[in-house]
Each structure stands twice: as structure tokens, then as C-alpha cells.
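Hello,

I think I submitted the XIL job twice by accident. Can you confirm which output corresponds to this input? Input:
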Amino acid sequence: MKTHLLKIPLLLASAAFIFISAKSFKEVKGLKDYYKKYFPMGVAVRPSELSSEESKLILNEFSSITPENAMKMGPIHPREDRYFWRDADTIVNFAVRNKLKVRGHTLCWHAQTPNWLFIDSTGNNVSKDVLLQRLKSHINTVVSRYKGKIYAWDVVNEAIADGPEFLRKTKWTEIAGEEFIEKAFEYAHAADPNAVLFYNDYNTEIPAKRDKIFKLLKGLKDKGVPVHGVGLQAHWSISTPTREELEKSIEMFSSLGLQVQFTELDISVYSGRQGGQLIQGQQQPQQQKSVFTAEMEQQQLEKYKMVFDVFRKYKKNVTGVTFWNVSDKYTWLDGRGRKNFPLLFDQELKPKKAYWEVVKF
Ligand code: XIL
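Support: Only one job matched these inputs. Its output is below.
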């Protein structure tokens, strides 16, 4: 009898402990919770991260994922008669299991495209008809497979030139002129009429490039092409963009009746455009020490604070924000003789000071 009586408070205490710890676990707010009334918070992922320590962080912080590489034409369609679904399926299945949104990336791009796409069996360029037929078949196959599971697609990526020309000179334009762009949107819309279709590009805050993207999108809208949004990649740095440039971009693209999403956000700790990357062909700098200095931390935190302030201000127009990579442990900006620290989580997956600025409002 006595032992029984002793057990009761013990049981009560352990029940209370379980209750409290379950509760406190639930109460660890993530980015997605702070921004619930604003827009989904997304992140670009690789399949391996979904079965490692990153997965907990992803689930706690984000409500949307994008495959970093797995759905690009090269990886997913290596030969004309062969698709490689494993990595893309892993990502989509993870999202379905955990009720995350998925942004598909990307159906038509000049980079990471397979060799077979533009040439015939003798190695010559295919005709425009053949290229468009291949594009149609690719888009139809990929979009149909994930219909209902992928809510938005980056249909065409980076078609506008950085230099003085209008379109970037690629195999696409060489063979099919400008028409491949509207065709890609038509094929995607036919395969999944409910998917939200985006044109995606970078350096969208530089006036000259922004004007060209605007012209392209206005032309597509005027023609009735099913384009619903513009993806602004947001590979920024401690020196770019300014608040004025950013606000102007959102306002201009929204004026076309398009949704705006920031699709590949990172803020390089080195100044310059496109993630402070080196321009291709430029000499590699000497190996720099990979130190995240207090000055970088401060400048980056201020830029993150500013851009999220703007995102919230334009919440009517901004329908999604996606980070390009999970944490500073691995980012696509690493290498080239230096490590970068462009994200909100450090190499131990802990929130950086910038994180607390982003959620403080
Ligand atoms: C990058 C990936 O992060 C890298 O792993 C890959 O080697 C190259 O592509 N703009 C885009 C993304 O639209 O697809 C690119 O992703 C980054 C720039």
C-alpha cells in the first residue's frame, strides 16, 4: 500500500515532465511560424540532407522545399530515352510525408542541360521543330509526374542577357529564337493547369537587366502566355541590393499582375553582384582565410534585416521566399579559393545573429 502511494506522485511528476517537454519542443518557433501570416519560407535541398541532421532543421524552420539540382534537365533526363527519378522522387516524397510545399526548379535553362538535347545522331544541331518537340516531351513528362505535389515551377531560367543584347545567346536561342520561352510556359500549363508558373532570373535589381526582364514578361502577358509569377533569385551580398532597388523591382513586376517570389536567397559576405562571386574567367584570388569576421556578421545582418523588412512591406505581392541551401556548412558559393557564409544558420546549424534580426518584427 505504502509503495503504491509513493508511486502516484512519481507518476504525476513524470507525466508532467513529458507534457512540459512535449510542449516546449512544439514551442520552438521556426522561420515558417514567424512568417505564417506573410509567405511560405523555403529552402533548396539535396536528397542526402533529408536523412541527416539537416532534416530536423528543415522541418522546424521551413514550409517549402526546392530541389537544388535534382530536377534540372541534365540530372533528371540524362539521355533522350532515360529519366533519372530517384533524387527528385526522394525530395517530393519527403515533402508529401511532411506536408511541405514544393517549388519545382527548373524546366528550361541553358546550364545543366544534357548534351543530347540540341543535337542529332550525327552531332549536328537539331531543327527548331525537333528541339521544341523534345522540350514539350520533357516538360510534359516531368510536370505530369509531380502534378498536384509541386505547386509552382520555375519554367524558364535566366533567359535574359547580362550584357547589351536582349536574350542570352544560348543553344536555345540559336535553334529556336525567342519562341522557346512561350512554348515552355504553354507546355507546362497544359501538363498541370493548376501549377503556378514562374520566369526566374538573377541580377533583377540592376535597372538595365530589370527593364529587359520586364519587357519580356510584359510581352508574354500581352500575348496571353500562361506566366503567373516572377522569381527573383536574390543571390545578393553585403553590398547589394539597396532598399530602393529592391522596392522598385517588386513594384515593377507586381504592376504586371505577377506574383513575386524570392527563389534563391543568400547574402554573400563578399561584396559584389551574384553572391559576390568571381566573374567567370577572372583569376582566382589567393586562398583567403575562411573567417566569418565580426564586420561581415554586422553587414550581413543589416542586409538581411532590410530585405525582410521590404518583403513584409510587400506581403500582398510576395508569395514566397526560398533560401539557396540550408546552412553555412555547405553552400554553392563555397570553393573558388574561399568559403562563404551567406545563410541564416552557421556551420553547426545554429541560428546566426542575422536570424534573430529576420524574426524580430
Ligand atoms: C546551382 C547549384 O546550387 C549548384 O550545386 C550547381 O553546381 C549549379 O547550380 N541559379 C540557379 C540555380 O537558378 O539553379 C543555381 O544552382 C544557382 C544559380
